[in-house]
Design brief:
Elements lengths: L2 E4 L12 H11 L9 E5 H7 L3 E3 L7 H10 L3 H9 L1 E8 L2 E6 L4 E3 L12 E3 L5 H16 L4 E10 L2 E12 L4 E3 L15 E3 H13 L8 E5 L23
Parallel strand pairs: 2-8
Antiparallel strand pairs: 1-12, 2-12, 3-7, 4-5, 5-6, 8-9, 10-11
Helix pairs in contact: 1-5, 3-4
Length: about 250
């Protein structure tokens, strides 16, 4: 049976905090011990806080490009400037929507720069290297507990042609993010030819059911009972190369 267990009671994260240790401490305070095979899903917001990826908007000087985009989108020019700093390129601007490609290769709104759950006048950027962040958190958890685990760093993203956002994996460690089932027979013996399951995204979305996106105060979730393939491919492997794009 798969269990989704919220990590409750974590302290406010500050720059330099060891997230793996803080997660273990919060779980142990509730009588929960990390076990082999557990998956820890962590919000990118607390990773941003621990890694000093928080911008004070009052200290940001917008460029002329940021000022023009702020006029078009009706957004704070300082917020736009942070979005541009975190972007590789602008993909689309329409109304108040600004879609960019991040340096990680993610196509998303606002370069993943978040204004929620960080305090007034501040913005949280995505980790510089989410896979490296996931590895570090995993090592800290394994060092503190002796258990072999996987770690996923998540963020909520919209999807083309569908309303509503879902959590996706932007970084992972200790788990193969994609389950390739090509070559396996289906229920009727038909050989699967294109079935590749992004289990890292599915686990991130499952975690969001307990984590929430508003004032729940649950920045991490433990998933227990899911059997996954261990590995170090990282979530960067999820991003489809441009030469494979159909759009």
């Amino acid at each position: 049976m798969i269990q989704i267990i919220p990590v409750e009671g974590m302290k406010i994260i500050m720059p330099g905090d060891r997230l793996g240790v803080e997660i273990v401490n919060a779980l142990q305070a509730k009588g929960i011990r990390v076990a082999d095979g557990d998956v820890i899903v962590v919000s990118h917001i607390i990773v941003a806080k621990a890694e000093g990826r928080i911008y004070q908007l009052s200290e940001i000087t917008p460029t002329p490009q940021a000022l023009e985009l702020a006029r078009i989108t009706n957004k704070d020019p300082a917020h736009i400037e942070v979005i541009l700093r975190e972007a590789k390129r602008i993909v689309r601007v329409r109304g108040e929507v600004l879609i960019t490609e991040t340096r990680h290769g993610l196509i998303c709104a606002n370069s993943g720069v978040d204004l929620s759950n960080v305090g007034e006048g501040m913005a949280a950027a995505l980790p510089e290297d989410p896979d490296a962040s996931a590895r570090r958190i995993r090592w800290e958890i394994e060092e503190a507990t002796g258990a072999k685990v996987a770690v996923i760093i998540c963020d909520s993203h919209g999807r083309p042609f569908r309303r509503g956002a879902v959590n996706i994996a932007i970084g992972c460690s200790g788990i193969e993010p994609i389950w390739d089932r090509r070559g396996e027979p289906d229920l009727f013996g038909r050989i699967l030819r294109s079935k590749q399951i992004c289990v890292a995204d599915e686990l991130a979305s499952a975690a969001e059911l307990a984590m929430g996106q508003a004032g729940e105060g649950i920045p991490a979730v433990l998933i227990r009972g899911y059997k996954y393939k261990t590995g170090e491919a990282g979530a960067s492997q999820i991003i489809r190369p441009k030469e494979e794009s159909l759009f």
